[in-house]
Design brief:
Layout lengths: L21 H13 L2 H32 L11 H49 L2 H6 L2 H43 L2 H48 L1 H6 L3 H54 L4 H42 L21 E8 L8 E8 L4 E6 L5 H8 L7 E6 L2 E2 L5 H6 L1 E4 L10 H6 L7 H10 L3 H6 L17 H15 L3 E5 L7 H14 L4 E5 L11 E6 L2 E6 L1 H7 L2 H12 L10
Parallel strand pairs: 3-8, 3-9, 6-7, 7-8
Antiparallel strand pairs: 1-2, 1-4, 4-5, 9-10
């Protein structure tokens, strides 16, 4: 698995997508905890001290009861001895709480720190995965998996140190004391009950885990449907399908409800069985202790001590069954998040890849072939050059592969044949970060962050000043619109920029790219959402912005690229023609045919057309 330099190194124990055991999941978690090993050790020390004090409480209680068990008229100072024991009893209780709080205080940085570390690593890895992954994913289900996985990490670590390990330590201490102070019968009764309890809990929990997994899958599916419908709010409204979406969501909720009921039924069966086992062991232990008191082998304090030990063990043991189920669920959730981390990057930097060095900005497509699906090739042996400081336009029918060229240049995908170079450097051999710093793109479908207009423009170069952001906005002819709004650059654009019109969004995207000011520019239908007047104005600004830069323009309206240095005509993924606007018209081929068709569709008085 490839990972960022700042991420924790994960062991390569499993094949991505393969079924992973709980122990393998735990091994993958260990590097995150190992980073805090000294804190973990100190927290374990406080935990042992807290349990030692807790085990001492019943012992002290025994001595207190025995000290009070005096015959009438006994001349011993009955109040002096219990007073000292009472103070010691209070001290032990205080020590238990003190060491427990110290353990939690020391360990807080471990659980929260490890959770932060893995959440950041997943976030970075999601951005490192290919565009193909993000086109296929469902945002709702993915966000749910990450949320549950991050929460599971905290739960798993907390449960382990706060309950499971302390309970096991206390069981060992109590059994050791009972075996030493009384006889092995108490030890065997407790161990037998523990063995039966653990076997029953593990076997039933393993059986019902599939119901929890099914419940989680249905939860993610229902959540994904809801998110998808809300993200496509306008489309739902356009087709009057609110009731349809509600029914689809309710179908998911109903399936989830049925899974919840099934899971709860098996949970009730598990709880009942656990209570029966614990109740049986309690009766056996108390019967043996009561017989000892009757026979004179044990004091009344011994009976109270045994009872106190049983109560102390009973409470966490009863909770241990719940914890086991939670731990199993946490491991399942954590495994899903680790599976995300193991998703291979389709596009990755070559080992030791250098930074891209842009000297002139010459871009070459050399025999480029590509297919999203091997059974359906998109590009076939495409070759052309964009000279330094020049603009080359690519035109063609929908599906000809125009936008694919932009994606390949930006390295969202790697070519399947040939190569793309910038100043002679194969873009697959340089770092993706340096490549993308050198390229600015205005995509056909502009998506904005749910933040302010100023933030979205400033995203082109984080840290840019207000004056620089406004300058880019003016260059994109969007400043006047922004200034006319009540909040100006602090105006919120809404989810995916839905509060703005298509043209306004595209001008914000253009301003964002102009602010970035890279040596290589890509305009993928950059003015497709604009009216003719604005298109002419922005075309002039884009031409000015591209001055001295290498620009690839993907266009549908041929009038916008008539003055390009060269025009490449794609037809079914192949270069059909290439040349200047005048040369292609003179050749009277595919380009001339497209030009005549578009001219015939434009009204004669359209001011957006050249005279």
């Amino acid at each position: 698995m490839r990972r960022s330099a700042s991420a924790v190194a994960l062991p390569e124990a499993t094949v991505p997508g393969a079924e992973r055991t709980d122990w393998q999941t735990l091994r993958k978690l260990m590097p995150y905890l190992w980073a805090y090993r000294w804190r973990v050790g100190l927290a374990l020390g406080f935990m042992v001290a807290a349990k030692a004090a807790n085990v001492g409480v019943p012992v002290l209680l025994k001595h207190l009861i025995d000290a009070l068990d005096l015959k009438p008229g006994d001349p011993r100072a009955a109040l002096v001895v219990p007073a000292g024991l009472l103070l010691a009893y209070a001290g032990l209780r205080l020590s238990t709480s003190l060491f427990t709080e110290l353990r939690e205080l020391v360990f807080a940085k471990v659980s929260f720190g490890a959770s932060r570390q893995i959440a950041l690593q997943v976030f970075e890895h999601m951005h490192a995965l290919s565009l193909r992954f993000h086109l296929e994913r469902q945002t709702g289900g993915l966000s749910r998996d990450i949320e549950r996985g991050t929460r599971a990490l905290q739960s798993l670590v907390s449960y382990s140190l706060y309950t499971i390990v302390p309970t096991l330590v206390e069981v060992v201490m109590v059994l050791t004391f009972l075996g030493w102070r009384f006889d092995a019968g108490y030890v065997w009764i407790t161990l037998s009950a523990l063995a039966v309890y653990i076997t029953f809990t593990v076997s039933v929990t393993e059986w019902r885990t599939r119901f929890r997994r099914e419940m989680n899958d249905l939860d993610s599916k229902a959540h994904s449907r809801a998110i998808d419908a809300l993200l496509n709010y306008e489309t739902v409204k356009y087709f009057n399908n609110e009731s349809f979406e509600a029914r689809r969501y309710d179908e998911g909720l109903e399936a989830y409800r049925r899974a919840q009921v099934k899971s709860q039924a098996t949970l009730s069966m598990l709880n009942t069985g656990q209570q029966l086992i614990i109740a049986t062991s309690l009766v056996a232990m108390l019967w043996r202790a009561t017989q000892g008191v009757v026979d004179g082998r044990l004091t009344l304090g011994d009976l109270v001590m045994v009872n106190a030990f049983l109560i102390q063990l009973y409470i966490p043991l009863n909770f241990l069954g719940v914890l086991y189920r939670e731990v199993k669920q946490s491991l399942t959730d954590l495994d899903k998040m680790f599976a995300l981390l193991e998703r291979d990057r389709e596009v990755a930097d070559a080992p030791g890849a250098p930074e891209l060095q842009v000297r002139q900005g010459v871009v070459r497509f050399e025999g480029v072939s590509f297919a999203y699906d091997p059974a359906r090739p998109i590009l076939h042996d495409v070759s052309f050059e964009i000279p330094a400081g020049k603009t080359v336009a690519v035109v063609g029918a929908s599906g000809a592969g125009k936008s694919t060229l932009a994606r390949l240049l930006y390295r969202f995908y790697d070519v399947t044949g040939g190569r793309i170079t910038i100043d002679g450097q194969d873009i697959r051999q340089v770092t993706q970060g340096s490549l993308r710093r050198a390229i600015g793109i205005v995509p056909q479908d502009t998506v904005l962050f749910n933040d302010t207009v100023g933030y979205n423009i400033g995203y082109g170069r984080t840290g840019a000043s207000t004056a620089e952001i406004e300058g880019a906005a003016r260059a994109a002819h969007v400043h006047d619109f922004i200034a006319a709004t009540p909040k100006g650059y602090a105006t919120m654009v809404g989810e995916r920029g839905l509060k703005l019109s298509g043209g306004e969004k595209q001008r914000v995207a253009i301003a964002r790219t102009l602010l970035k000011n890279p040596p290589v520019l890509i305009f993928d239908e950059a003015t497709s959402a604009l009216d003719s007047a604005n298109e002419r104005a922005i075309q002039a600004e884009l031409k000015s912005a591209a001055e001295g830069k290498t620009a690839l323009v993907i266009a549908h309206r041929l009038s916008t690229i008539a003055d390009a240095h060269e025009i490449v005509v794609l037809d079914a993924g192949r270069v059909a023609e290439r040349g200047s606007h005048a040369d292609l018209l003179a050749a009277d081929g595919r380009y001339a045919e497209m030009w005549r068709l578009q001219q015939a569709q434009v009204p004669a008085d359209d001011p957006g057309q050249p005279a």
